[in-house]
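Reviewers of the previous submission asked for a worked example of the structure-prediction workflow described in the proposal, so we include one complete record here. The input consisted solely of the amino acid sequence. No template or homolog information was supplied to the procedure at any stage.
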Amino acid sequence: MSIIKDLEKDIYDLIKKAGYEVENFILKPSDRPDLGDYQINDSMTLAKIYHKNPKQIAQDIKEKLELDDRFTNINIAGPGFINITLSNSFLIHAVNRINQDFYNNIDKQEYKKIILDYGGANVSKALHVGHLRSANIGEALKRLANLLGCKAISDAHLGDYGRPLGLVLLEIQKRYPDLEYFDSNYEGDYEKVPLPITNEDLEKIYPIASQKAKENTEYLEEARIMTLKIQNHEKGIYDLWKKVVNISKDAIKKVYDMLNVSYDLWNGESDATPYVPELLKICETHKVVSESDGAKIIEVKKAEESSPMPPLLLVKSNGTISYETTDLATIIQRKKEINPDEIWYLADERQSLHFEQVFRATKKANLINPKVNLEYIGFGTMNGTDGKPFKTRDGGIMSLKSLIEMVKEETKKRINYDIVTQDKVEQTVDIIAIATLKYADFIPYRTTDYIFNPAKFSDVEGKTGPYLLYSTIRMKSLLEHAKEIKQETYHILEDESSRNIILTLLRLPSVLTKSFKIKSLNEIAEYLYILTNKYNKFYMENKILIETNHNLQESWLVLTNIVYRMNLLLLDVLGIKVPEKM
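From that input alone, the workflow returned the following structure tokens.
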């Protein structure tokens, strides 16, 4: 339990001793710092319950608080707001508790096993800028959930079983018709059959095949047949499909590695297909399936709804299954293999209808225990300086690798080549570029569309990733220069800038809890900036290395060490690494 939670419990007991019961008591940071550090706003609510003047209730509570030496300057404002200031002795004690164990300043959440489904990459297609936010937000939420005591399991859930793969394999067949994969009489080992295709080829093949399908109905029909052959595990075709998937998956992993994004599971839609027969049987048993033009569907519209709600397509008229079907089968798979308490799906806001259909069908067919929380976590788009989604010069969707390279070029302009050795330049540029992208992604609330300006967000001044990295590196450098000086105990609290840092540190538990509950990282991103900014002010005001009062010097170094470690912890939650120098 965090320091503030402990304090809230003690204040609750003091209020009870004053003769009042408060439900869900929370100590709120003051709206008026000139009046106090925290405020208690319960007097007005208690007045309605106890039929007393709120000022009298506030006075009764104030008298009990005044008996506790952890509080000073207790005053009543307005109709009954109680403002309290934390004593320096309490803040000194708090710093030493945090220094002893960071978990003294973190509130664990109720343990839950959570699957996070994010990334959503499609095999054989290049990752584009639209994949950035899903990967960033999903990875950070996974790390946050684990920090707060849950077991978070991430799944890339690759798109590897639908028509895009049918299109790719069809185009390969058109180009290389003599490959053994397309010879129904071939009896050899497909593993030994070479494939003259690289991932770069695959990324070019799909858009070409997709365009052909739009212009030629015969080509489209051939792609549908090829998709069915994949899903029926036809000899040769299915073996080619496996090779294409593996080539593409390796390339996808490399891009996610660049983003410092990792997955516990690399399952695709195809991994859920063994559960499709069970899914269809369950749906038939619960009588939720109906026929429509030769296809099998599940009606998910509610009787009281007047707005359109299309049915969920379970099996297409040609016998192929849709990604709605594999999403439902994946729920059964996850129930059997992991048995989660919650499943979080991260996807663009434009996918909201799809998930509403899947969740309704899941409930209608009773696929999983109703207590299991299925939650869709949508997010807005990242746009260029023109306010529109990032495009290449020819108007196409920009690949994620191209975006990263663009940011790296900006980063190179800001590297201090006098201190970063040549052998570390590339690694340092990579780290700073990813920090630039990630922090810019986290600053707005996740559903907000935002404009990404590479030059602005790669600057070391302002609310940027490089600013946080530079400040954190400077803290590390200070601590290294002071490594011969004792850094164990916080003794003295004299200056206002130190006090402001400590009060900010005490806010951490509420920041983490709120971020976890609203599933957005903007709270943590903003907190990191505020804490770092306050530390930099403190750093400029105090000559730490030449301070002659040893107890004061040690106190300043302890505080520096805590802020440094706090930055490392929270940057890691956001999936941001810190270079040695920059």
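The chain has 20 helices and 13 strands. We consider this example representative of the routine output the project will generate in years two and three.
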